[in-house]
């Protein structure tokens, strides 16, 4: 499994089958790992049926809703066990169009982490209201200013990681969960001096179901940024005292 897509799911029964078909149409030989958190709507059972149809699909069943971050970590672990060299993460709700997958893989030939970005030239969002646009802008601006992040889209989950990145970052050590996990992963990648690129995408609001972004997630993201900012300041202080900090 040279290339692999990790898809966390919770109540995505209506989306997962057409999404898999679209991924296979965009990139025929790619592997897919579905991490389902015991979805009450039966998403896990649909994923099992897909796995019986496609030998390159693996399903991880978890006992309950354990969070986006740990779902990514479980998917990364399985992908690395299967020898995947490039691992893509994406949402299950068609917010991330599978047609962009070849672009992410192409860019990963020259970069360690590639982000499908809403906030570079050619990128954008579709079917968002003013409130959500402002919230997303604020979250990204806050993360970039506080953490010195170079990427424009710090909270986007459509990404392609090289195998070496995950082996070095060790996702199981990431403290943040939910969507703030994405901010901490990006922060760790930049700390370790991995090359990061962004390719433009159009992010579409989910086709079916309801958004899982809540006020709790927003609070957790803000707290994660503050925690990492304090860590960043602390590390700078230690370096100024002559202590070598591993990057």
Task: Provide keyphrases for this structure.
247 residues; alpha/beta; Spore Coat Polysaccharide Biosynthesis Protein SpsA, Chain A; seven-stranded mixed sheet; two-stranded parallel sheet; 44% helix; 17% strand; disordered C terminus
Describe this structure in words.
The chain is an alpha/beta fold. It has one domain: Alpha-Beta Complex (Spore Coat Polysaccharide Biosynthesis Protein SpsA, Chain A). It has 8 helices and 9 strands. The strands form 2 sheets. A 7-stranded mixed beta sheet has the order 3-2-1-4-7-5-8, sandwiched between helices. A two-stranded parallel ribbon has the order 6-9. α7 runs parallel beside α8. It is globular, with a radius of gyration of 18 Å. The chain starts with a strand and ends in a 7-residue tail after the last helix. The relative contact order is 0.15. The C terminus is likely disordered.
Short synopsis of the structure:
The protein has a single domain, classed as Alpha-Beta Complex (Spore Coat Polysaccharide Biosynthesis Protein SpsA, Chain A).
Query: Per DSSP, what share of the residues sits in E-state strands of 2 or more residues?
Result: 15-25%
* Shape summary: globular
CATH class: Alpha Beta
Number of strands: 9
């Amino acid at each position: 499994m040279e290339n692999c897509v990790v898809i966390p799911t919770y109540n995505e029964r209506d989306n997962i089958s057409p999404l898999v078909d679209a991924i296979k149409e965009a990139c025929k030989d790619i592997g897919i790992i579905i991490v389902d958190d015991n979805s009450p709507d039966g998403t896990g059972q649909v994923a099992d049926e897909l796995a019986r149809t496609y030998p390159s699909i693996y399903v991880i069943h978890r006992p309950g809703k354990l969070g986006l971050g740990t779902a990514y970590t479980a998917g990364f672990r399985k992908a690395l066990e299967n020898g995947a060299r490039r691992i893509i993460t994406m949402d299950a709700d068609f917010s991330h169009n599978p047609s962009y997958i070849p672009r992410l893989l192409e860019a990963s030939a020259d970069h360690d982490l590639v982000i499908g970005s809403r906030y570079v030239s050619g990128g954008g969002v579709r079917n968002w209201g003013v409130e959500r646009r402002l919230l997303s802008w604020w979250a990204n601006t806050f993360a970039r200013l506080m953490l010195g992040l170079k990427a424009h889209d710090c909270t986007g989950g459509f990404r392609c990681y090289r195998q070496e990145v995950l082996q070095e970052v060790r996702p199981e050590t990431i403290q943040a969960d939910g969507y703030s996990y994405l901010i901490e992963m990006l922060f760790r990648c930049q700390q370790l001096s991995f090359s990061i690129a962004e390719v433009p995408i159009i992010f579409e609001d989910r086709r079916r179901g309801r958004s899982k972004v809540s006020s709790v997630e927003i609070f957790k993201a803000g707290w994660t940024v503050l925690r990492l900012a304090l860590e960043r300041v602390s590390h700078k202080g230690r370096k100024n005292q002559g202590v070598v900090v591993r990057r």
